[in-house]
Queue: 2 jobs
Job 1
Amino acid sequence: MEAILIPLGAGLLQAFEPLNLFMIFAGCLAGLFVGCMPGLGSVNGVAILLPVTFLVPPTAAIIFLAALYYGAMYGGAISSITLGIPGASTAVATVFDGRPMAQSGKADKALMAAAIASFIGGTVSIVLFTLFAPPLAAFALKFGPQEEFALMLLAFATFIGLGGDDIPKTIFSILLGLVMAAIGFDIISGQPRMIFFDMVEFQRGIGFLVLAIGIYGIGEMLWTLESTKGQVQMHSVNITWARFKENLREIKLYINSTWVGSFLGFFVGTLPAAGATPASLMSYGLSKTFSKDPDSFGKGNVAGVAAPEAANNAASTGSMLPMITLGIPGSPTTAILLGGMIIWGLRPGPLLFTESPDFVWGLIGSMYVANVATVLLNLALIPVFIRVLAMPFTLLTPIIFMLCVLGVFATTDRMFDTWIMLILGVCGYLLRKLNYPVAPAVLAIVLGPLAERSLRQSLISSQGDVTTFITRPISLTCVILALLLISYPLIQKMMRRRKMADAS
Amino acid sequence: MTVRTAELLMGIATFLISIGLMWNVYSDGLTIGWVEGRGPGAGMWPFWLSLGMALASVATIVRWFQGKTPESQSLDPYIHPETLFLVIVSALSLLVMLVLMNIIGTYLTLMIFMLFYVRFLGKHGWGMTMSFVLGAPIFVYLLFEVALTKYLPKGWPIFEEGFLWIDNYRWEYFY
Amino acid sequence: MRFVKTVAVSALALAVSAPAALAEWQLRKPVEFIIMAGTGGGADQIARLLQGLIEKKGLSSRPFIPINKPGGSGAEALRYLQDKAGDDHTVMMTLNSFYTTPIIQEELGVDVTTFTPIGLMAMDTFLLWVHTDRDDITDLDSYVAAVKGAGLDWKVGGTGSGQEDSVLTAMMEAAFEYDVTYIPFPGGGTVAKNLIGNQIDSTVNNPSEQMEFYRAGSSKPLVQFTGERMAAFPDVPTAKELDVDIEYYMQRSVNGPPGMSPEAVAFYTDLFGELFASQEWQDFCTSDGLTCDNFLNGDDLAAFHATQVEAHKKLIEQVGADAITGE
């Protein structure tokens, strides 16, 4: 214990030096700002970091980085809630309930729930990180392709019941997402697949953000324009002290989902293959499945905002673990960071903890402080964020369209994706009008590539033997959990029926 | 077009798209079956999932004939004529925006886009319009170009030259 | 008034510096630094390190913007660069898929010998790695024996069918007359992790991908596929010493699109030459087992590319495209 507390204390103290404290707030603000732009996330924020790195000492740079990372994580929720467009891929699930809440005049409650859940998720995650980094890293290594596939099964299982009432349309939506995920170059066979019109750009595949921004940005805007006949009246809220206190008391409505999301998120985030997006989606699905009132999800249940936000923050912290302990980037952001670390003269890898303890503990310490700073900033800025909702629609629409186009361009640096975004947006709008649920397609395109790849890797390594998934303990556990989850709604229904029978 | 008609047409369209995807995978010569000792072939996943899409589309069409879904009975217009204009204008404006970005570059396009939306669709005053027409490109320039070092599309060389002429001042005086 | 003055001064400055500008070509906009692989891999790490060094040393008046175009084993990047013909503000960090991808995907219509060679930053090397838990494997002979004993149960991890390490794996299969199961993963880092986690039995990683695990004592190299022993691995024999005729390198060169202007080529060659000679780069080379002895550029590099293309054509013919593309 002492071995942890002393260096951690030193790391925390570092964070409170004036320059470092300034870097924390600058980083949080920059991160929040970048994160709340649709499409832009912490990956882009790192671009701001690099020049700063050469101006200040490495420790200050690390602190700036941690703050930026957290800021961007929190920021993703802001545009999900106020604009209905996922600010980052990790914040897609936040749209599901955050958007309806904003539309019914509860944007402040949603933002507050997002901030508090993010804070709890982040904190739980850093504490776990501080205490159990080495054993967790060892556990993450036990995850081979078989375990990854079993985990994906588990993820799919959490989405049972996420679709609409029309079963064929829900199935169509899931399958469409899975097929779109297969477009591009197949690394397993080394062959290009579904390269339409021989356009070489398709070899890259269709990115998840392109679909999400197309559907939620463009499609949703068209939908809103139509359903309100252009006379959109967003509900603006006046923030008063009394309302703030009332919102604080509502924490109990979502605290359970938040805890579950935090632990789940951290765990999934530490696995090199997964990351924050599947974690937040799984957390949302779980929260809905085990809710007393699952039907209210998707219509503005505050737990539906808290669950994914807690999970994605926890997972983002968790994804630092494989990088710091193993030198393996768990997310694109950490991948880019690796370059910066090399310039600072640090070698990310299993020896980083012992060879550069100052760096590691400085980073962990500043993660604690950055988390606190971000939640405070966030709560203070809620009144500013919800002013967006009071803007006339004719001003908001062009801004949103502009940010969608530029955000998509910025993720891959190619115009091709903006075209795909527009096409998918319009198609999504037309499908949605006929009661095709779009969320399953979005989920499927995230999990599809992971699921297909790990399935095929597992089968190649077992030479085509499908029992490989149930002969390995971790994989077997995940498979059993997935089966239980799938059958849970049925069991629940039977229990209810029996209860009704007893009552009558 | 009523919702009822749209539902049938969409069912047929999704069916045809699914078949098209299956054909695309098959005609590329990808292995759609199980490879002995290796598991699924490269085409297995997309091919059979597309088949699932086709079956789901068939189910939707069958349900249309049975009149089981609310959409298959609704005689409301698919898109209300009074809002059709607004939706088409929005979608077209985006299309035009993307085309223009390739020709005259991001910044001029944004100015035209804002002028169109704020002044002609929104009917806001000139003060508001001009603050958007000028504000949007400046904001985008500072955020994307300066802070995030993204090189946004600049269009044809002549327009790129124009941009570089202005951009050059930044490098000359600020770095 | 002040504005007028500024304009007048800058016009004067322009007039004075004009002859100099003619002599020395200058960047006019940010440079797109294309990486023909995804984030986190060896090529990406190197490109981002170079970008950082350019910025740190203030070598360029405009920033280098790293852009990953990993689609189709670099196919997307190659086509992009080809379509950028004549552009003076795009350069690309390449690896061996620069040679293999156009051969395997003929329909791409890319001929890399038309590209503008700028500079060879390093030759990366390959070693054969196993987990340190494998006490039964101490050298190449015991390795071959173990593989032959396991047959298809022997799992070799790699970065994808058609990638360099799959070529090398196919070469080893031919040389030692055994068959293994090759499992593709997305990126060298993931391969390394799976070796350490005992999900796969062996791999032919680059040193930079295994170095930290090697130092931590979780993996060990058995043989290096180089001409001479590297300074970083003085005790590991080369394949040639063991009478196995496999020598294979990964080139890490910077290239421009076809038809770059000579002035721009001179500028980039100077810039990357300076980076090459820098202490930071040489230190990185030593610690990561890269060979950075010669900064090939111009016609030398063009000739180098031409021989490499031919060599890869032959290699792929020998081991068979099937052996590389898996199915």
Job 2
Amino acid sequence: MSKQRPPTSASARRRNSNLTVLIVVAIAATMFCGALFVGGGVWFFNQATDVDPASEADTPAWSPDSAELTVAVSPVMAPVFAELANEFNAQNQQTPDGQTMRVAATVAEPERMVAAALDNPPFQAMSPDSSLWLDRLEQSWLAQSGGQTESQIPIGQRRVSEQTRYAVSPIVIAAWESVARELGWPDRPIGWEDIQRQATRDENFKWNHPSTNSAAGLLATLAEFYAGAGLTRGLTEEAATDQATLDYVRAVEATVRFYGEGEEVIVDRLAEEGRNFLDAFVAQERVVIDWNQNRRGDPLVAIYPAEGTLWTDHPLALLELGGREGEFPVTDNQRLTYQALAAFLSSPAAQQKLLAAGYRPADLGIALDAAGSPFSGTAAVDWREPQTTLQMPSPAVVDVVQNFWYYTKRPTNVYLVVDTSGSMEGTKIDRTREALAAFVEQIRGDRDRVGIVEFASGTKDLVPLTAMDEGNRQALLTRIGNMQAEGGTALLDATYDAIELLLNEDDSEAINAIVVMTDGQENESFRSLTEIQRLLRSAPTPPVVFTIGFGEDADENVLAALAQLGGGQFRRADETDIAELYRIISTYF
Amino acid sequence: MNRTRLIFVAIVVVALVIVGAGLLWANRSGAPVDSGLTVDRPEAVKIRILTALPVEPWVRSAAQEFNAGDFSVDGVPIEVEVVAADGLTALGRYDRDEFGALPPDVRPEDLTEAEQARLATFPTAWIPDSRYLVELANAAYKERLGRDVFLTDGEYRARPIAISLFAWGLYNTRAEVLEERFGAIDWSAIHDAATASGGWPELGGLPAWGFFKLVVPNPSRNVGGLAAMIAMAGEFYGRTDISVEDVTNPEFQKWLKELMGAVTDFSSSSAYTAEDFALFGYSVGDGGQLLESDLLQNMQGILNRWEDPLQLYYPEYVTWFDFPFAVWVGPETTALQKNAALEFQRFLLSPEQQQQALAYGLRPANPDVPVDAAEDSLFTRWADQGVQEVVPRTSAMRSPDRDVLLALLRWFELNVAQ
């Protein structure tokens, strides 16, 4: 007999069936929801924990598929490079995954470029004025990496992964044609020693070279050390630091009118002041071509130093990033953008543009003496030159030359005239403290002296000129750290006081300068611009006056007038670049 | 539907939901849906060829032609990517295992997706400057993996694709003065010129030329610099085989340092030294021993930029570069990639491509192709400047072993670079 199932009602069966379906659906729904919950939770956790380093600590960051390449460019190449980058961007080249290639240029002095490139740089490629900076980058990178073991092949661990060069230009002594003729040009070779001799003989001879953080400044300084040591090659640390060498360099440096940012600023000043400004200056050959092509008035000629010169060779180098903690690697698309940019810079159109700007293009197919070339039909530059170059010493000797230059260069007396009126309250005074501190850190010569005139409704604090040894530097930094914002703006009184203090020093051997900064309108001074002008004119060698308008409310008319009276420059700044501006001004000393 | 069926259906539904959600999730996170489930035939087989700088322009041009052609392996089209790398730099990267070779007990299928993606960039083949660099790389991997990674015999053996040698290149005006003074151009004459304290006037040249300036590539960036140092040692000792003792001999080191003292700047001498030589002209170098193909490629550029042409001379102790095409035989690359590399190697050795190499100043590895086989051969074009189709009787320098190489590079780092 078969076992019968107990009879059930239809509703009971339906109930049971519904219950089962409900259970199953509930299980399925629970599992599905669970999967979504777990998945969503993981996604949310990832979102929450994948902290954007940029938001955490201002670390440079870019997306993994970014095709935007930021290139740090030396100031001397920046204007032409910016034009070329715009042309490249206008091509709208695409990566295989559809990203548009973009190049952004950021201007940086080569020495700072190298320092930045060592750790989390905000750029992926760099174009300094000379390969010597890439060499220094590699040396520093290797030193930071702790070197290699004895058994390893000691090559290939580099910060630079790809490298090309797109234009070159020799460094020359640019001089007015009449000045060059007085020196013997073009009948006899003229060397560094001729310029140095002329400057020490004739106190009215005004010449300039940039500071050693650019190739032109470094070359001019090396040439002085070579001449001082009586060598043209094989400069050693011993020869460079010999007292006789240092005395010679110090005597020559005493004839330099000022240092400064480099050739672009010099050219602007030449355009404004003409021959009164300088007789000769050290720059790339292209500056001479550019000047003669675009300016009216006296022509410049390029003197190729008889002892030898150096070349600026404008490398474009892609960095190998990602080796530091938190450092973003260069993306595949950025690498493609670099390669496309390198190809673009080598293209006939770009190379012709560089030639037109006075550079010698890297494309050896372009003859410099061809019709239409800026090198043909002029005696101001000579494509057959230079005949010889100075030997570049080892990086260790270059370091020594750079460091000792600070002790041989012309000393500086500089007063920082700082507005700490009520309007500076908040982040402005914070940024100002930082900028002043950076300026003080930048002044490295043991014979350089810095003073501060802090003003509001009147002079609030005065720190007389103080030699920048370590103790005084720390004391000055403490004073800067204690600055507080309150009161009105007696700008002209403070400026007058600073000039008077400098004139009382009567130190004609030094570069005397004041750097005036304000964010507001002159409203409480007893002195006038006319009185300041009278004071400056009373001095045989008046100090140079640099002025900074901080923010949009600064009294630009007064500041510009002060700079003009003092033979300096007026610059605008905001909270993002005030520190950089103070640093740039420090290169003038 | 009874309860059992319902439960069965429910389980199936639940399983489908789970699989569906899983696939959805995997898709969302970017993982390929079919990974691990199906084996697809690739649309193209991509191969990366690490290529030494002197042959890179020719190989790149050949690769473009190859990629545009109808080349395939097992029916799969081949795509060649050429990556330029100085031979010594590439050796350094192999030496440090920077490309990421797999340990002996790891297979590619054991790797995570990220690791597999990284392996996709592993070079399929390497064309270094010289066979001895392949031997040095093999030595490094033998220690690490217990086997060679580039074969010296069999189907996948390294085969030279072109050859070139080191020759003297001197600006004409300077060469005439040196010949007048010393007779033959050799390292001994160059050493005497380099150490002349009165510079060019003492040698019979013009004062404007300054000191004699030697061009030597930076050995840490260009294998040519190392080749020059080996050639210097060969002539100093009058033999072709150099040992570590020879390198560390104080007398030799003094002589070598005096020679290197005539180099004006190692910082700006990039990996492309002959190009620099043309770009900066006699201002940075009066002459040097450089790769013949590099010199030939830059002859016209020199004529465009400087008044003085370059004159070539062949030394007695010669260093040859044979540019071997070496296929990586490890599991990091697929069989398809290895065979695709062989296909490209055959293409490079074809008579047509070997003739193309003549336009780059390279001597064909294929003995059936003479150096004057092409109209645009640089050997016929620059014959008046001392280029010889048949190299005079010379002694070939033997390849240095790893210890000699390290000794020379360390000496350079300590005595010149720093």
